[in-house]
Design goal:
The complex is a heterodimer of chains A (440) and B (184). Chain A has 440 residues and is mainly α. Chain A is built from 19 helices and no strands. Helices cover 72% and strands 0% of the residues of chain A. Helices cover 44% and strands 16% of the residues of chain B. Chain B has 184 residues and is of the alpha+beta class. Chain B contains five helices and four strands. Classes of the chains: A mainly alpha (440), B alpha+beta (184).
Chain lengths: 440, 184
């Protein structure tokens, strides 16, 4: 209460980010993105089979950050919370990178890329070919194929969901859903920022109420998007495998990583002289608590998934963990347990550490790294066995690095370039002062 | 003629608002009193800071309580399922490598023991349950659960004095200052 801030202390019109001030980081992103894009084009041309996995990994990493950002906006509005008003705009801007991600993700729609990633699509394409020749439906053709190859029975059973032909019949084809996921996230991001920006024009509280209403409504399509995008893009890499925990697992990591990015972004903006009056150590503490909560939540979900599969010991289910718990991947698995859960858990326990920006930025850097490792561990172990290249496709890690550089660099560069377009915080939000003076 | 013995509990002073109570608490803390407390109908954000309350020891109790829970659960399962009565279920080894199967119990007992230490540790630290409190002798004090904001400086504080503390409370804006006496 001794540092009570009033409207007199805050500038009219909020604070606008000047890209020239952050030119170092923007330049770094540009260089990383440019190098990555060059390497990625080479990857797609020269090693399309191996590189498809790299690209999926990089795209999915960025996708989880978008999912997390949308989640925090929706949760914030739906729960009518006031503390996060000062950081909400940053999430809104981050979530609005969805169109860029959608463009970067387009290669995944190409059949030539899909043929390396999704074995089931190859069977479906073959079935579609047979179906055309014999004048029967694709599902029937798949059924005929299953008489020779018993494994394909699973695909016949899953045809209602897992297909690439029924574009307009719910639950739609893989491709339609692919577009739908981006549409949902894009709509959420655009709609929520739109309301927030319109409030800056007229200062009307109705925008706050409208945001609350539509957040409650959009949480449901959002949850479906996060769940089924992870089913479609990652789980179907192995069409025999399934886990009902999968969507929650991906969601937990998404919310975790995007909160870590937010803390780093806030700390970076403050180091450039922005947000000095509006963000205090209390906000770091609050964000740190959420980060801690999701550290535990992720571990809970990750262990539950492992535990049920390990205990039941059913062949179709154990394959996922078998390839990740043998050979070199075993060490990555153990590393994730320690680095993704135990380390952050202990580091984030103490309150003074959560209030210290230097400590938090260090922890958050580690958290982003661990989220990358987690995504890598989810996507890449499938590559060697699927392509017949052994456990670790030799040399392929360079492709993974370039793909990650391309996606993160491009999106980071465009995000920071566009960040100056509006105020860094919603300066006419009715709960602004409550948020600025928050004590917890 | 009353023969009841009485003991001075301390001075009770009333304040009009949260703001006044907050600033009064800051001043009492600055004056160096140790045995005192504030009473309000609802929690006041930042009051701990104004009162200069030190960090509670409770987290340490809870940490060791939780650790005891984890250990208990681990030993309970390790001793029975590996040492005393090893049983092979679903091809799982009856060794330390069955650890994942024990996690749920370890987790739950950690929570249970932590919760118990939190509750009972808290009660022990704040001195509850008790049958009565000297402040209930005051006629004005029941307002604390409605619209009263009070500061009470206890007589067992080394800095307490019958004249000095009263004038100090008047100085910081306390109203209806009352010497609360406890029947013994």
């Amino acid at each position: 209460m001794s540092h009570h801030v009033t409207f007199k202390d805050l500038p009219e019109g909020g604070e606008k980010f000047d890209p020239a001030k952050g030119s170092k980081l923007i330049g770094a992103f540009a260089v990383i993105g440019g190098l990555g894009l060059v390497g990625s084009i080479y990857g797609f041309v020269a090693h399309a089979d191996v590189f498809s996995y790299s690209w999926l990994f990089a795209i999915f990493f960025a996708f989880t950050v978008m999912v997390g950002s949308c989640f925090w906006i929706l949760l914030h509005n739906a729960s009518n919370s006031s503390w996060g008003v000062v950081i909400r705009r940053l999430f809104e801007n981050l979530a609005n990178m969805v169109p860029v991600l959608a463009i970067l993700a387009l290669p995944l729609l190409l059949p030539s890329v899909q043929s390396h990633l999704y074995e089931w699509m190859n069977h479906h394409r073959e079935a579609a070919h047979h179906a055309q020749e014999a004048g029967i439906s694709v599902k029937e053709a798949l059924h005929h194929m299953a008489e020779e190859n018993q494994h394909l029975h699973v695909l016949v059973e899953k045809f209602g969901y897992l297909n690439i032909t029924k574009h307009f019949v719910p639950p739609f084809s893989w491709q339609t859903r692919f577009l739908l996921y981006f549409f949902v996230l894009w709509y959420i991001a655009r709609h929520m920022r739109g309301l927030s920006l319109r409030q800056e024009q007229d200062g009307d509280i109705r925008h706050t109420i409208a945001a609350r209403n539509s957040s409650c409504r959009w949480l449901f399509p959002f949850a479906l998007t996060a769940t089924f995008a992870s089913v479609d893009w990652l789980m179907s890499l192995d069409y025999t495998w399934f886990s009902t925990m999968w969507g929650v697992y991906i969601f937990a990591g998404s919310a975790w990583a995007s909160m870590a990015i937010m803390i780093m972004l806030v700390a970076w903006l403050r180091s450039l002289g922005y947000l000095q009056k509006v963000v205090s150590e209390e906000h770091y503490h609050l964000m740190g608590k959420l980060l801690f909560a999701f550290t535990v939540f992720w571990a809970y979900i990750a262990f539950s998934q492992y535990f049920l599969i390990w205990y039941a010991n059913i062949t179709e289910e154990t394959r996922f963990y078998l390839i990740r718990n043998t050979a070199g991947w075993r060490w990555v698995s153990i590393f994730i347990v320690v680095g993704h859960f135990i380390g952050p858990f202990i580091l984030l326990l103490s309150q003074p550490r959560k209030k210290n920006p230097v400590v938090m930025v260090t922890v958050c850097l580690w958290i982003i790294f661990m989220h990358v490792v987690d995504m890598y561990w989810n996507v890449i172990p499938e590559r060697g066995p699927s392509l017949g290249l052994g456990v670790l496709a030799p040399g392929a890690i360079w492709g993974d690095i370039f793909a990650l550089m391309a996606v993160v660099g491009t999106m980071g560069f465009l995000f920071l370039r566009k960040l100056g377009g509006n105020s860094l915080y919603p300066w006419r939000d009715p709960r602004l002062l409550e948020s600025v003076n928050v004590v917890n | 003629m009353s023969t009841t013995l009485k003991r001075v509990h301390g001075y009770l002073a009333e304040f009009d608002s949260v703001k006044e109570l907050y600033h009064a608490a800051e001043k009492v803390n600055e004056a160096g009193y140790n045995r005192w407390d504030v009473h309000s109908p609802f929690p006041i954000h930042g009051m701990d800071h104004a009162m200069g309350v030190k960090r509670s020891k409770l987290p340490w109790l809870v940490f060791f309580g939780g650790a005891a829970g984890t250990t208990t659960a681990f030993l309970l399962q390790y001793i029975t399922q590996v040492k005393l009565y090893p049983t092979i279920v679903q091809a799982k080894p009856a060794t330390i490598f069955s650890l994942p199967a024990w996690f749920p119990v370890m987790f739950e007992l950690t929570i249970l023991f932590s919760a118990f230490t939190t509750l009972f540790g808290l009660l022990a630290l704040i001195g509850l349950p008790r049958l009565n409190h000297p402040l209930f002798a005051s006629k004005r004090f029941p307002k604390f659960s409605d619209d009263g904001f009070f500061v009470c400086i206890e007589a067992r504080d080394p800095k307490f004095s019958q004249v000095g503390t009263k004038s100090f409370l008047e100085e910081i804006g306390g109203k209806n200052i009352e010497l609360v006496e406890d029947e013994i």
